[in-house]
Every structure is written in structure tokens, then in C-alpha cells.
Amino acid sequence: MTRSIKKGIYVDEKLLKKIAGKNPLQTPVIKTWKRACVISPEMLGFTFAVHNGKTHIEVLITEDMVGHRLGEFSSTRKFTKHGGKMQKELEQKKKEAEIIQAKSATEVTADAKKTK
């Protein structure tokens, strides 16, 4: 359910005070726990560290984000992965291919050193 029009959008006053009159390029990351705060045009270019319940995730504010909430860009759930037996086999084949590629790269560099 959206916020009532007569109430207006929720922009945290303390966040606006922190960015008032500052240059976005020279300002360090601003930590915040205000996930419900709506991103306003004044916040463009600033980097916010939005709390996701465990850590702070850095979010660089761009034009496309105006009107959205800060919490939308800091996921609170950790995606592990899908899969099962087939997925494990695919991952193991991928690791083996990487190992073979790394060995061949080291052999090529060793051969190059011998020729010098």
C-alpha cells in the first residue's frame, strides 16, 4: 500500500542535513538505517551505505533511482543457489577446466622464460 498523497513522500530530514551544501564527489560514504526513505533529486551522486540487517551495502544514487526507496537497492536476503546433483557436476567440470587452463598458462610462461 502506498503512502497517502496528502502526507507526501517520506524523506528523512537528517539525511538531507548530512548532504546539504556538500559536493557528492568529495563526500565520504554516508551510513544510514533509513531504508524507507525515498530518494530525492538532491541525493544524486552521493553514495549511501544502506543497512540490510547485517551489514551496510554501498549504493551510488543515479537518476533512475529517484522516487524509489533506499531499501530497494540493499537486499536483505542472501541467495545461495539452485541446483543439486547436476549443478555440482557442472561446477566440478568448470573447476577442472579452470585448473587445466591455469596449468597451460604457467607452462607457456615457463617456456617463454627458457627461450630468453
Helix-strand blueprint:
Blueprint: H1 13-19, E1 30-32, E2 47-51, E3 56-60, H2 85-115
Parallel strand pairs: 1-2
Antiparallel strand pairs: 2-3
Q: Based on DSSP secondary structure assignment, what is the total number of beta strands?
A: 3
For the record, the count of structural domains works out to: 2
> From the helix content, strand content and strand pairing, which structural class follows?
alpha+beta
Q: What CATH first level of the largest domain would be assigned?
A: Alpha Beta
Q: In whole angstroms, how far apart are the ends?
A: 71 Å
Query: What do we call the CATH topology of the largest domain?
Result: 30s Ribosomal Protein S19, Chain A
What's the shape?
A: elongated
Tally of separate helices: 2
The CATH architecture of the largest domain comes to: 2-Layer Sandwich
Helix content: 25-40%
From the alpha carbons, calculate the radius of gyration and give it in angstroms.
24 Å
Spatial arrangement of strands, main beta sheet: 1-2-3
CATH superfamily of the largest domain: Ribosomal protein S19/S15
Compute the average pLDDT.
Answer: 88
pLDDT < 50 runs, ≥5 residues? none
What does this structure look like?
Pfam families: Ribosomal_S19 (PF00203). Protein S19 forms a complex with S13 that binds strongly to the 16S ribosomal RNA. InterPro entries: Ribosomal_uS19, Ribosomal_uS19_bac-type, Ribosomal_uS19_CS, Ribosomal_uS19_SF. Belongs to the universal ribosomal protein uS19 family. Keywords: Ribonucleoprotein, Ribosomal protein, RNA-binding, rRNA-binding. By secondary structure, this protein is of the alpha+beta class. The protein folds into two domains: 13-73, 30s Ribosomal Protein S19, Chain A (2-Layer Sandwich), CATH 3.30.860; 80-116. It is built from two helices and three strands. The protein has a three-stranded mixed sheet with strand order 1-2-3, with no helix packed on it. A hairpin with a 4-residue loop joins strand 2 and strand 3 (56-60). The longest helix has 31 residues, at 85-115. It is elongated.
